[in-house]
Queue: 2 jobs
Job 1
Amino acid sequence: MKFETVDAYLASFPTDVQQTLRQIGSAIQEAVPEAEEVLSYQLPAFSYHGMLIYYSAYKDHYSISVPPPFSVFEVFKDKLAPYERSKTAVKFPANQAIPLELIKELASYKAKENEQKALSKKNKSKSKS
């Protein structure tokens, strides 16, 4: 199934999963109010000075993933220790409470990282002119 909007993606799930996904999206938006919610790679995501964070649902878990660099997972490795992780994502079991405060922290950290990257690019382009 191909999705055209975030709402279409959310609507493809049962009501309880939709509610959890909306909570995750709201937590990210609260942490980074300037971020824009978008659909990217057929997943709900937020963009802020580039791609910020993706979120999704699967049969047994919810997932948060980030584009490179992946330093956010190293910085928060102690808080993320209870959860299964890959290089790009962390999985939150569907049968447990979703750690919304932790998700906010991840989003805030990644937003600051994106701001620094954008500022660095801006300064590099100024020095070339």
Note: The first helix runs from residue 6 to 11.
Job 2
Amino acid sequence: MDEIEGGVLDRVPVSALSLTLTRSTIRMQHAPSWQVDKSNEVYDLIIALDGQGEYLMNGQRLTLRPGQAMLIPPRTRFEGWMEACDEYIGIAQHFTLRAYGEHDLLSLMELRPIADLAPWPVYEPLARHFRSQSPPGSVTLPQHHQFMVLLNAYINAAFIRWRPDAAQPIEGTAGIDLAVMQAASKISAHPLDPAIVQATMDEAPYNRDYFQRAFQKRIGRTPRQYQQFCLMERAMQYLEAGHSVTEAAARVGYGDPYYFSRMFKRIIGLSPRAHVERLKLSRSGQLFQFDEGEQKARLQGEAAG
């Protein structure tokens, strides 16, 4: 667990996103004679399972292999064909993804057209299950949740940056909600960057003081405090993976483990060692006989002791 990375959408409130599968899943099983030349009105995510497909999109020649996903944006003409195999199997799903009910979230991101769904041994069973269980003429609730997992994996692998030309004021509360969401995503993805808060505030399309107040109102912390919280969350993961306090401190940019411990306690509410002890107690199963309120009280008591 030495590499701990944050996902692009990890800090997005669940209620902020609206995923819609706009048609039944296309269960691809193409022969060498297969060809396509078309565009769609919505996004199309294609995942290759066996064989490979050749594509031409925006003047770029692309090859989609097993374990990879390709995103075709709305109203983007593409061509597809086969060359190097006898059968090409995969899934294609048309969808929309909106933030706060209004904004096309993917249009705000710069994404690679093709990305690996890694680790593929984790995602392959889900992708094959998604294909095999998809009804021919409808979509189901489980499909939406399963597809969100696959789409999130693609976004994390394909993400390059938030588009700078997307940073412009949008009318209403949805606009500031979206700007705060983007800022939180940037900070949580790069908490070790000492300049990330300054850069994020500079990029926000709002008055600096107003945006900082809006950020604190929605996140519960100022941007600087949020950066420190994200650092300590990473430190918690290192501690839980078995690293010492000194090692965890160094990995999140603290050369002095004593200062790190003070900061950890101030932000998380207990010392690094108390956090590890509380985790051990929670994992031991000794508290399962109590209801949730009693479990919380006993965990806090152990941490304080």
Note: The mean pLDDT is 89.
